[in-house]
């Protein structure tokens, strides 16, 4: 039984990641720093961050994209060449990030194709419901629907990896918690890339890393919380899985977390890893020196370690 996560640190910062950091500070940070997440602002964000060109986002050469629908839920299968022939046998269920308010399988297609490539597993990427029409727990319900669908097609739970980044990491945690609570078998593994697990923003890193994270400045994150949480309690574990009951965490699968050392929500990963490990679950936390939010998005620094 484990009582502490295995912690692995990677560094120094690569030249590629340093260049990404500079580019984000020059372009992305000024754009989002003063964004207002009104109804109009949400719609604008969804258009700006997913332009028509998103349909042409590059993927691993030879990757097949198959569009599908699970009841009301649009989704796509992303099948890298190395994953062909594994359909119906094993799968990655991927849940994209985007602060709970934007993003789609299209915006994350590059990353998901690379994950499919290194794992040799087909990946089902879901287009869960977003504001301003839908708010949590709608994304969790959509993720649970997709998980039930994979089980219904005959893929064993032990052959399913649930993975997600940022808000998608939080939804991935909620999916596993709700599956266990509902009596469903847990997936074979859980991969969390910079998961947003605490919508109360109580981690020390929200203060200590303020200004060090070029991708998610503190101001926009706090405004996002106001939109996503509304009048509800942000420490409710059905919104912030960091605070989930220990009895549910005891049934978790082996879990891998990746995070950059200067991320605003670094402590979400640290504390989530501590809680899962304390429940007796094999847990590994990988910390990448000064890498921007969601390490594998910006290069190959983290992707190989997902497969390991």
TrEMBL record:
It comes from the Bacteria. Keywords: Hydrolase. Pfam families: Abhydrolase_3. InterPro entries: AB_hydrolase_3 (IPR013094), AB_hydrolase_fold (IPR029058), GDXG_lipolytic_enzyme (IPR050300), Lipase_GDXG_HIS_AS (IPR002168). One of its GO terms (molecular function) is hydrolase activity. Residues 92-295 form the Alpha/beta hydrolase fold-3 domain. Belongs to the 'GDXG' lipolytic enzyme family. This is Alpha/beta hydrolase.
């Amino acid at each position: 039984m484990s009582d502490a996560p295995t912690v692995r640190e990677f560094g120094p910062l690569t030249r590629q990641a340093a260049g990404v950091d500079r580019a984000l500070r020059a372009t992305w940070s000024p754009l989002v720093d003063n964004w207002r997440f009104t109804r109009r602002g949400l719609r604008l964000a969804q258009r700006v961050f997913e332009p028509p060109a998103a349909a042409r986002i590059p993927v691993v050469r030879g990757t097949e994209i198959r569009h599908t629908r699970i009841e009301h839920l649009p989704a796509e299968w992303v099948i890298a060449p190395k994953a062909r022939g594994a359909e119906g046998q094993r799968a990655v269920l991927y849940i994209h990030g985007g602060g709970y308010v934007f993003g789609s399988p299209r915006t994350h297609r590059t990353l998901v194709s690379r994950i499919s490539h290194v794992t040799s597993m087909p990946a089902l990427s879901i287009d869960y419901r977003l504001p301003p029409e839908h708010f949590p727990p709608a994304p969790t319900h959509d993720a649970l629907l997709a998980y039930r669908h994979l089980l219904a097609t005959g893929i064993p739970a032990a052959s399913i990896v649930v993975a997600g980044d940022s808000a998608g990491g939080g939804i991935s945690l909620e999916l596993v918690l709700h599956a266990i609570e509902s009596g469903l078998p847990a997936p074979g593994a859980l991969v969390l890339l910079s998961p947003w697990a605490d919508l109360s923003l109580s981690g020390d890193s929200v203060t200590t890393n303020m200004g060090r994270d070029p991708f998610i400045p503190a101001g926009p994150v706090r405004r996002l919380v106001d939109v996503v949480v509304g009048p509800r309690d942000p420490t409710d574990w059905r919104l912030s899985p960091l605070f989930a009951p220990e009895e549910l965490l005891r049934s978790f699968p082996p879990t891998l977390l990746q995070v950059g050392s200067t991320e605003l929500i670094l402590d979400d990963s640290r504390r989530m890893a501590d809680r899962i490990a304390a429940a007796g679950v094999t847990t590994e936390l990988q910390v990448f020196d000064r890498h921007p939010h969601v390490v594998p998005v910006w290069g190959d620094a983290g992707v190989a370690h997902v497969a390991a």
